[in-house]
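Lab notebook, bench 4. Continuing the backlog of folding jobs that were queued last week. Each job is logged with the same field layout so the records can be merged later without manual cleanup. Today's entry covers adenosylhomocysteine nucleosidase, a 232-residue chain. Filled in by technician R.K.

JOB TYPE: sequence-to-structure
TARGET: adenosylhomocysteine nucleosidase
LENGTH: 232
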Amino acid sequence: MQTIGIIGAMEVEVNTLKERMQTEEIVTIASMEFHRGTYHDKNIIVVRSGIGKVNAAICAQILADRFHATAIINTGIAGSLQAAINIGDIVISSDALQHDMDATGFGYKPGIIPQMDTSDFTADERLIQIAQEACSKVNPDIQTHVGRIISGDQFISDNDKKEFLKQSFGGLCTEMEGAAIAQAAHLNGIPFVILRAISDKADGSAHMDYPEFEAKAAQHSINLVDEMIRHI
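JOB STATUS: finished
OUTPUT FIELD FOLLOWS
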């Protein structure tokens, strides 16, 4: 039977899923609480990873090793890199890449991980399709976009940095965990998808946008994950 690992970047998303699921056990590993149980008759593990790529990758590896996850959904928020992607919209990953991976001193292009078969990790086509259909159903008030999500251990709030990331990597949005989870899933052969609700525009307005739109972005993500679990 499938076991769906759900990694949340926001406490509000994780708490809502914990409240709705039928919890069978709570296991603490690496200071993370893994809630194992069922939801919509599916086996799920719900966990908040903490912020940043290291936390995210450790979390995904535990889902692989301890809980034998057969699919991973990473849900959270992100800053938009494209004018057409508005606050409140959802971005579904086609692939994910780490924008702060920099081995250019050895002749590699920015974002390339030396000695790996790939540096942009492709999301599962079936999970992408399920996410698209689910979002159209439960979040009809917003737009859904499919494309590259880029990650780095940086909160982007500068227009020049935003333009550099957009031109260099072609990402739709930027955040701090998704590509690390994608890499861990890739190495373990686990299908994955990253979902990001847009909470700010990744520019100088971030400090104004974030508090106002955080709750709305989180609700869109909750609606989406809930509907996805029904159909996986």
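OBSERVATION: Strands lie at 3-8, 22-29, 32-39, 42-48, 71-80, 90-98, 121-122, 144-151, 173-175, 192-200.
SIGNED: R.K.
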